[in-house]
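Changelog note: in this version the structure field was regenerated for every chain. One regenerated record is shown below for reference.
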Amino acid sequence: MKYADHAYRSADDRLTLYARVYGGEGQPLLLMHGLTRNSGDFEALADHLAGQYQLIVPDQRGRGRSDYDPQPDHYNPAVYAADMFKLLDDLSIPKAGLIGTSMGGLIAMLMAAATPDRASGLILNDIGPDVEQSGLDRIQSYVGAGEPFEDWDAAAAHCKRINGDAFVGVDDSFWMQFARHTSTALPDGRIQPAYDPAISAGFSGDSANVAPADLWPVWDLLAAIPVLSIRGAMSDILSARTVAEMQRRHPQDFTAVEIPDRGHAPMLDEPEALDAIHAFLASLES
């Protein structure tokens, strides 16, 4: 699906950031990726939504084609949220649906709590106000570590090694595509992850730079905003218990769907995810 490249200045005016913008007639949707990912994560979903909706798909600072930040403590959800408001303002978009995978969902919750009138609805992919420590420990075990890979085959093998338990029934072509979405080629032909290794600093310093300790007060501010929660049935980040509590605290306009054979996090092109997303977005326009 074709998109336009959009460059803009960060909220603190220190960095040049990047976003893909897909044209569409319907409401704008802001799609935000996870900790180590980038705008390429949403290519499959964009194939299903572009044209029907305007899609804005950024690379957060330190990822993909956005500048790396020389101050690692700026790699935190509050700063990302400020950048996202700057992006929407740059595109003259007063209100958008917010779709966030993992860290992107944390950003979405902070944005909607800060300015609820700018969020038409939230789709939270495998994330909630309570993040399981086991999942954080798993991510910490690999993020920011290691040397570049010799070639794309080695990069794909690495992606399968660290994420294989989360995706049942996929073949090697899936892992090659996964690698090409999350990695970049160096001038010497070697392959490295397409993010600043310094994003891992939050694990050894202030953990709020990765996942704020208690987002339930933020969640309680979202009571008037429609929410779709998508959970991988095998997730080690979002528990079924947390989804149940989200539902209890948000009895109106809350929908939850669980994706079989997926852990953290569904790619959002699974049939169950697509059905739920299409129905939820249609409900926002009715």
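Spot check on this record: The first strand starts at residue 4 and ends at 9. The beta strands are 4-9, 16-22, 28-32, 54-59, 96-101, 119-125, 183-185, 191-193, 227-232, 254-259.
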